[in-house]
Amino acid sequence: MLDLGRTFLQSVERSPNALALVDGELSLTYAQWHDIIVDVADGLRGLGLAHGDRLLVVLQNRWEMATLHWACQFAGIVIVPLNWRAKPEELDYCVSDAGAKAIVYEPVSAEAVMQSPAAQQVPRIGLDVAPGRSAGFDSLLTKVAGRANSDADAHAVADDYSLILYTSGTTGKAKGVPRRHRQERAAALAHVAQNLYRHGECTLGVMPLYHTMGVRSLLAMALVDGTFVCARRWNARFALEAIARHKVTCLYLVPTLYHDLLGDPAFASTDTSTVTKLGFAGAPMNDGLLKRLSAAFEPQLFVNHYGSSEVYTFSIDQDATKKPGSAGRAGINTRLRVVKLDAGTPDDFADVGEEGQIIVDLLGDEAFEGYWNRPDANAKSLRDGWYFTGDTGYIDCDGDLYVSGRVDDMIISGGENISPVDIESVLSLHPAVDDVAVAGVKDERWGQRVVAFIKRREYVDAETLDAYCRTSDLVNFKRPREYVFVDDIPKSPVGKILRRKLSAGEYLTDESNGESDRQRSNETIQKQTEINKE
């Protein structure tokens, strides 16, 4: 199998003059970008990084970040991308755990770098005159006298490590997920196939390049000689302007970002007609948002992708609105099954319709082989050749997978196992609900009680929502016993609901009495209700 450096060379050789990268006013063809990538790869070697060494990068989605990713693939260096919002102790842990030989960062992440003792022991390449740097990014682009000119070929093979992704777990220390070139390429090829990408696609590069979704978008565009439009920090208005300006053809986002796009006042006046393919991952999308997106974009393809950093693809549903909530079936490189919640082996199958834990075959082409320096995590998650995901779900009578949440998110109330996702899907369809999350809160009688946290689009009260749930197909024991109206739903940087914060009371309540909203909401609610009935 080709390594990733040679994968990029394919695009350079096929389409040297095709537009490859856009960042603000900077536009680069594949030939132009390749020249810069080779220079940066040469600069990293000149800095003392050798084949197999790790480079920690703490940058937003800017052209330098995308360039460093590819330069590492050419040089055989392992890139370790980290959240640019990382706290000093998080960064310090990752520098030490990964054994990073150098760090690249920018002003927004400079404080964390400067407060990390481990970071002070290695070269620090700072962009935009970042404080605390030992060299500037330009030093990677400048030929050093006496250094042999690098050729344009790749210096890695398919079995070399490509990168280490640190999972953004909500509890405990982050886990490093090392992935080889062949695993990354297989995942990118699957992404192209499963999203039906064609030659010359253009995508918005907004999912962070420290996250598997962002990396996949970057690699997939190279496979189809496409264009990666950098979005340094999420901003719905900028995203809409970029879609219109660059004629973006495909979007791959977490549900939260789609929600923001539709909510921006400029959406209605922005030409988004070039977007024909929508894909989402990272978190379930509620039924209400599915309907709104389908009506707004009228996409030719609407893909629900379910996976992880460890095994990129678990399952795919290429018609997300046909069976809302369905994650479809195993991806083209994957085998999966659902086992009982207390299963000790991968052969303890759950029955059809029975909620259990989702597990994935580690022999799949996209699967990792184990965590970096974490035998404890391996012992918990890797059993008999299968990856125990920690996700709960069930397979219906048609053979389609439904993901109901995390094992840790399961609400146990009065002895019943209750999935938050089922309840969220019902409430999301109410026209006054803008966003919703459900969590378990300690209760002396029930152990936990089901609480729905609601961000309102229009005025609605608890009694109305309770009556709505009573008339839905939601079984009675799953019905929320309390409704809390909040300013916002707490989420991780990649859009995952932080239920532990809700359970712990870490949120701001919506104190508005809603009288003016109540007066103007009737017409909007009636209109949305009719859409939901279609």
From TrEMBL:
GO MF terms held by the record: 2-furoate-CoA ligase activity
Biased composition regions of type Polar residues, renumbered to the chain: 522-534
InterPro entries, A to Z: AMP-bd_C, AMP-bd_C_sf, AMP-binding_CS, AMP-dep_synth/lig_dom, ANL_N_sf
Keywords noted in UniProt: Ligase
EC number: 6.2.1.31
UniProt keyword Ligase, yes or no: yes
Ranges of residues in domain AMP-binding enzyme C-terminal: 423-496
Positions of region (Disordered): 508-534
Enzyme class: ligase
Coiled-coil region: none
Positions of the AMP-dependent synthetase/ligase domain: 10-372
PANTHER family listed in its UniProt record: ACYL-COA SYNTHETASE, MEDIUM-CHAIN ACYL-COA LIGASE ACSF2, MITOCHONDRIAL
Family recorded in the similarity comment: Belongs to the ATP-dependent AMP-binding enzyme family.
Descriptive protein name: 2-furoate---CoA ligase
Species of origin: Paraburkholderia caledonica
